[in-house]
Amino acid sequence: MTSKDDASLNRKEQILDAAAALFAENGYYKTTTAKVAEAVGVTQPYVFHFFKTKEALYLAVLERAYQRILYAFTSVQAPPELLQETMGKAFIELLADHRNEILLIMMAYTTPEPVIRDHTRRQFEMIYERVLNRFTQAGIADSEQKTSNFISFGLLIAMSETLDLPYLCRWREKDSDSHQNHENHDNHDSR
């Protein structure tokens, strides 16, 4: 690959990053390819060089997030009794590292465009199958119900994060309590 190819791929990633941020902040309809181009510092035709339409750009952002989720859920290594918790932590890490993308994929079903809805439905089917397969292979009892609950909790986390309603998901409190206890322990040790 030439340095020109590297620069082109890097610029494409910058476009995807900017698009994810703008779609997350403004929604599908209020985000324009002109705003994405402006955020990256390129022309709108340059954005169209990579993505022929705004819908194609949106789907590319969703696809990248979807691939991140699938990889995280596939690559998690944990004993069966800790698999659900470890996969949940992998999701939380994705949310911390790629917040805009992950929230977009978790909320994409709200965009009524048929192509986006169909794509989102297929993505969630694949995620469901991947999680179900992991739970089944681990010997987790009632794996179908546990898979549904796992995905439902992910959707609840996304809604809680999007609407800034932390009391809907107490997982933040656990992280905060754990962090606070660690700080208190460190402060006590330094006395």
From TrEMBL:
Positions of the DNA-binding region: 32-51
Keywords of this entry: DNA-binding, Transcription, Transcription regulation
Name used for this protein in its record: TetR family transcriptional regulator
Family annotation (SUPFAM superfamilies): Homeodomain-like (SSF46689)
Entry-linked Pfam families: TetR_N
Species this protein is from: Paenibacillus taihuensis
PANTHER family: HTH-TYPE TRANSCRIPTIONAL REGULATOR BETI, HTH-TYPE TRANSCRIPTIONAL REGULATOR RUTR
Every HTH tetR-type domain range: 9-69
GO molecular function, one term: DNA-binding transcription factor activity
InterPro entries in the record: DNA-bd_HTH_TetR-type_CS (IPR023772), Homeodomain-like_sf (IPR009057), HTH-type_TetR-like_transc_reg (IPR050109), HTH_TetR (IPR001647)
Superkingdom assignment: Bacteria
Lineage, highest ranks first: Bacteria, Bacillati, Bacillota, Bacilli, Bacillales
PROSITE patterns in the cross-refs: HTH_TETR_1, HTH_TETR_2
